[in-house]
Amino acid sequence: MRKIICEIIIVCLIACTSLAGLQSVQTSSEKKSEFQIYLPREISIQESNLKLGYIGIVRGDDSFTSKANQVNLGRFSIPGQEIVITKHTIMSRLASEGITVSDIKFMGAEEVSVRRKQHILTGDDFTMLADAFLKKNISGNSISGWKPVRIVQELIIPDTGKEIKYSYKLGKIINGNQIDVEVTASSGDEKIGSRTITFKLEYEIRTPIAVTDIPSGTVITPENVKIEKQLSYMPELSDWKSPYGLIAKRAIQANSVLRDGMIGTPEPEVVIKRNQNVVIRISTPGISISAVGKSMQDGKVGEFIKVKNVDSQRIVIGKVNEDGSVEPM
């Protein structure tokens, strides 16, 4: 009987010992698995520094999570950059901080692709901002519009949580038809970047157009030429004058735009013929002296011609007047 009781006691002791060992293994296993790091496949963060707490989920006791979350894994150096963080990189950084990596269980993806939260300001966005600024600030009654010369490069703006503000700088008009607008983006007091947009200005100008075919020597009138308003990349000349009353220097086809060289002032008529008797007159306030002369060449109003005094036979040079007389120089 005693032998049987002893055997029962021995069996119970062995069972208790095995159970205690099993519980010890389970407790150790649970202790090892209570430190966990979950990694997503990809994530966008707002900060420029890549800390473990920003890109993954760390689970464990407070001392472990607080330390692990602050482990630095890198930093964004350029806008639009993508950084890939692997489990091996995380384990190396954790180990360098004195954290035992053998007690950590990784879950989720094998690596995580990290991007920074950002806004992209496209070239079209810059053009629209500059266009709206021009509408409020450009002056000039003849300026009717403008077109961008080229589309500028996009600008990547990090998402700092602050409002993006824009400032503008208007350049001077270049070559009469180009103007620059510099648009600068800022977040708080920090300047993020700027782009310069060049516009080509359009002007509304008056343009003379032939209504019918105009023979050479014909006087320009509203019957053969109309004045239309058209768009041009060059401003209208400040001394622009109507072409009416001028003469066609050459034949002009219908629907042609009248340009310099095609029209000019009428040629004065010849009022004095060669060998024609003329009056040589000198007039001053209160005195008028006249003599008879003979022209030695044809003369138009305003021209200077040679005239021989009939009485003295002396040759003088005089200016032809509208009344046909000649005024000596």
Tell me the Rg in angstroms: 49 Å
The average pLDDT value, as a whole number, equals: 85
Taking pLDDT < 50 over at least 5 consecutive residues as the criterion, the unreliable ranges are 13-33
Q: Please tally the helical runs, counting DSSP H or I stretches of 4 or more residues.
A: 5
**Strand fraction:** 35-45%
User: What is the overall shape?
Assistant: rod-shaped
Topology pattern, helix = H, strand = E: HEEEHEHEEHEEEHEEEEEEEEEEEEEEE
- Structural classification: alpha+beta
Summed up:
By secondary structure, this protein is of the alpha+beta class.
Explain what this protein looks like in three dimensions.
The structure is a single chain. By secondary structure, this protein is an alpha+beta fold. Helix content is 21%, strand content 41%. The protein is built from five helices and 24 strands. Strands 10, 12, 13, 14 and 15 form a five-stranded antiparallel sheet that branches. A hairpin with a 5-residue loop joins β23 and β24. The chain is rod-shaped, with a radius of gyration of 49 Å. About 6% of the residues have low confidence.
Keywords:
5 helices, rod-shaped, 24 strands, 329 residues, alpha+beta, five-stranded antiparallel sheet
Compile the SSE list and pairings:
Layout lengths: L1 H32 L1 E5 L2 E4 L3 E3 H4 L1 E3 L2 H8 L2 E4 L6 E5 H10 L7 E5 L2 E6 L1 E4 L1 H15 L5 E6 L6 E4 L5 E7 L7 E10 L2 E21 L14 E8 L14 E2 L14 E2 L5 E3 L4 E8 L2 E9 L3 E2 L3 E6 L5 E6 L5 E3 L1
Parallel strand pairs: 1-7, 2-8
Antiparallel strand pairs: 1-4, 3-5, 6-8, 9-11, 10-14, 12-13, 13-14, 14-15, 16-17, 18-21, 19-20, 20-22, 22-23, 23-24
